[in-house]
Amino acid sequence: MGANANNTKGARGRVVVTGVGFITPIGNDWADVAASLREGRHGFGRVEFFGNPNVPVKIAGTVRDFTVDSTNWRDWKWPAHHEIARETLRGLAPHGVYAICAIDQALAHAGLPREAVANEDATGLYCASAGSAMMLHGHLKQMDQTRGERGNPMGVVSSICGTLNFNLAAHYRITGSVCGFVSACASGSHAIGYACDDIRLGRLARAVVVAGEELNAETLLPFAAMRALSSQSDPALASRPFDVARDGFVGSCGAVALILEDAGVAAARGARVLAEIAGWGQAADGHSVAMSHPGGRGLANAMKRALADAGVRADEIDYVNAHGTSTPVGDRAEALALKSVFDTNKKQPRISSTKGLTGHPLSLSGAMETAFCVLLMNEGFIPGNPHLVNVDPVCEGLDLPRTTLNERPGVVLNNSSGFGGSNVCHVLRAV
How many CA atoms lie within 13 A of 361 on its CB side? Predict the structure, then answer.
């Protein structure tokens, strides 16, 4: 089934979202996530690594009802209504368990049985993951201890950066296309963008997009060495994007999946359309391996390109889901980028960072927050910035509501930024 069989040469298909699946610190389904965002309810819990109370990381965004903190898949537990076969588990990383549960939920939400995407040449799979440092460490440790005489035969596919695309393509029998994205905190947004392009160009009818991240010492503590993490133990003080006293991000984990379809294909099968992804844009900072451009140059360009791709003016945006990680440098750069794109003398969009509730799930963040935007447009509210107390003066002129607003956003912009100056933005439109 071709996505755009009737399109004339040069025509561009429309991409719509027909299903989402959530495994997140603020809920593992649509209803729980909606309630948490509306009520400003965070998903943070106490953590301690290596049994060492001197480690400066005290809280993180944790996922309920899953136990995946062992390198042995036999120890893992997940909600009973999800079925994962033994042969699949053997090759997974812990965040692969989250990802399968998120995809199954998204397919059900879209009204698609697994058979609809299996061996179907017009369906592609787009994944975002940094791999599993914990699994890699465990496998290499075994190799070192045995002086190279023993190793896990599934060690490579369960640990390196392509672990999601390797395992999930086989699990779901994807034959249209499969690829993975590794651009740090912009990875999930890149996966969505390139999936959209393949649908818009008529290469595919449908795409399953999934991003995942796990939470363990190997994943999180290297960021403490960079002094990028908050040292606070109070959730109300730890993740507070755009606050003058912010001191770093709070790590988190989970997986989110989205089902993207050509609008004509979705209409033909009678699917419920949740939102349209109207356009996207990306731009690089060309500045630093780790820090954002101080003036937000790359992010501003990415926003402008997304708006142009969507055919939307800046004053038509109702809400911006900011990248807003709660780092001093990153939030400042984003505030300056926003001020350069949105004229403070004209209509201003509402702006909030949902990382104040979820923490920062790294490569998952772009996909998670795009799915949040889809939810907000359907539920009819805009989340506030509940941990924002003293706004950084650099944000003067920006509309940063503290509490939830009962306003249905019609056009939304979602921002993501990653190491190396990767900036990706999406424009979503309500339908």
Answer: 33
Question: Does a structural domain hold residue 7?
Answer: no
The two three-digit tokens of residue 371, written as one number: 């799915």
Name the CA radius of gyration of the chain, rounded. 20
Q: Are 230 and 254 in the same domain?
A: yes
Chain CA centroid to CA 189, Å: 7
Question: What b-and-e string marks burial along 97-127, b requiring 16 or more CB atoms within 10 Å of the CB?
Answer: bbbbbbbbbbbebbebeeeebeebebbbbbb
Distance, in Å, from the CA atom of 368 to the CA atom of 187, rounded to the nearest integer, reads 11
Q: For residue 382, give its domain range.
A: 279-429
pTM: 0.96
Task: Give me the residues of the chain with pLDDT under 50, please.
Answer: 1-9
The secondary structure of 47-88 as a DSSP string is --STT-TTSS--EEE--TT-B--SSSGGG-B--TTS---HHH
Looking at the domain assignment, is residue 330 inside a domain? yes
Active-site residue list: 185, 323, 360
1 assigned to some structural domain = no
Q: Give the CATH number of the domain where residue 402 resides.
A: 3.40.47.10
